[in-house]
Fold:
Amino acid sequence: MAKESKSRKASDDGVRRAPLRELLRLPVGERVDLSSYDPGATPGGPEDKAAGREAVDRAGEPLAALQERLYAASTAGDRRRLLLILQGMDTSGKGGTVKHVIGQFNPSGCRIRAFKTPTREEQRHPFLWRVSRALPQPGEIGIFDRSHYEDVLIARVRELAPRREIARRYGRINRFEEALAEDGVTIVKVFLHISYEQQRRRLLARLDNPDKQWKFSPGDIDERALWPQYQRAYEIALERCSTEAAPWLLVPSDRKWYRNWAISRLLLEHLQALDPRYPPADFDVEECRRRLLQDGGPHAPGRA
Structure:
């Protein structure tokens, strides 16, 4: 991924530029050092917040149109679908992304799942079991707020499983995602990268607003104490599970407007690449037109 100093501005001004999915893509097979990426950067983005918000609004119509085409294609047997996986530290904006970006889609064609602490039933199954049950169906757009990566992130930091078992999970995740891709799933994996100080500001904002205090937990402070361990756990996951079939995209997320713009842009690029088409009619269009034009209504002669 290009650093901010080398980044090129977005194509919203009509200038042809590199796709954002290439600009934000983490190199496959290379070591990841999160400290080398600026969480406040805006690579490829609009010039300011106002322009970013306008761009997100403009993306709404083409996103909705592409979603409709994707669903329509599935009625004729097209098995393709899209899965957006959102991972990041607390307050990085997973829920905000769902609210501001995914809200532009038709909810009937979306399958949104927030993964929390596994239930007793889920704990009785392999760690990928609950994820498999939440996958989008052909023609749908799926959104995971957290995902199977929790089983190599918090599980690693909190030592919820033996280290040897966690080490095996990276390979299982890669094979799982490769199988999904072969079955027609476009996987868009996004790491929302925020800074330690920005998280503090967002947590304080929750405490200062009575309407947001329900989103705060004293445990959030305990988790902050493990920030270095979480950063390392993410670096390992981003390195070992970035593949050609399912690469990781790093979105700097200290600026909410940029985060929302980047996610909407990434979704637009991936859906445009799929280029779903409306299926042709499997009936005689002109014959149906003729019948409708000749229809005299319920009180026409000869009708009961």
